[in-house]
Amino acid sequence: MADPEAAVAAAAAEQPAADAPVGLGIDLVDIARMKRILDRTPSFAQKVFSEGERAYCDARANPEAHYATRFAAKEAVVKALGTGFTRGITVRDIEVVRNAKGAPRAVLHGRAAEVAREMGVQSLPISLSFTHDEAVACAMAITTDSVKAMERRVDPMRQLAKQFKDARALLDTL
């Protein structure tokens, strides 16, 4: 007999994330492990990272930390999309670039871009950080549905102020 928890988990994994208005992804990468991978398999960087990502990382004093951070970002993005590296999405479909002010942002290519469009993703902010030992990334897939929900959301303080104003107007008419 199949494990019922495994069956539920498998069914949930197959569901598109479009029913979730906001997707959140977080990933952590050990920097020393990334250094070992880069040292042992120099082609790894070329297979996983774009030319721009490699140029950025290689220009830093500790490139392994920046590679680890970007790898964590790629993982965080697919978690935010709710897909993982499935549905034809590859690590090269996600690129971490920097805007004019130096803030990181995720640029989706290929199948990742198609999936994001299908899900109604309007923006995909990311946050990156690292310590001496670990790199961490957080990504949020903000969909059209989440923007609409935010617009419909009632601010409790504004609602209370309106009720107070209505009550005051009622008292003034008496």
Tell me about this structure.
The protein is of the alpha+beta class. It has helices at residues 4-14, 31-40, 43-48, 51-58, 63-81, 110-119, 144-152, 156-173; strands spanning 22-30, 94-98, 104-108, 121-123, 126-130, 134-143. The strands form 2 sheets. Strands 1, 4, 5 and 6 form a 4-stranded antiparallel beta sheet that branches. Strands 2-3 form a two-stranded antiparallel ribbon. Helix 2 (31-40) packs across helix 5 (63-81) and helix 4 runs antiparallel to helix 5 (63-81). The relative contact order is 0.16. Residues 1-18 have low confidence and may be disordered.
Descriptors for this entry?
174 residues; alpha+beta; 4-stranded antiparallel beta sheet; two-stranded antiparallel ribbon; 6 strands
Poorly predicted runs are 1-18
Assess the beta-strand content as a share of residues: 15-25%
Tell me the series of helices and strands, N- to C-terminal: HEHHHHEEHEEEHH
Q: What structural category arises from helix and sheet content? A: alpha+beta
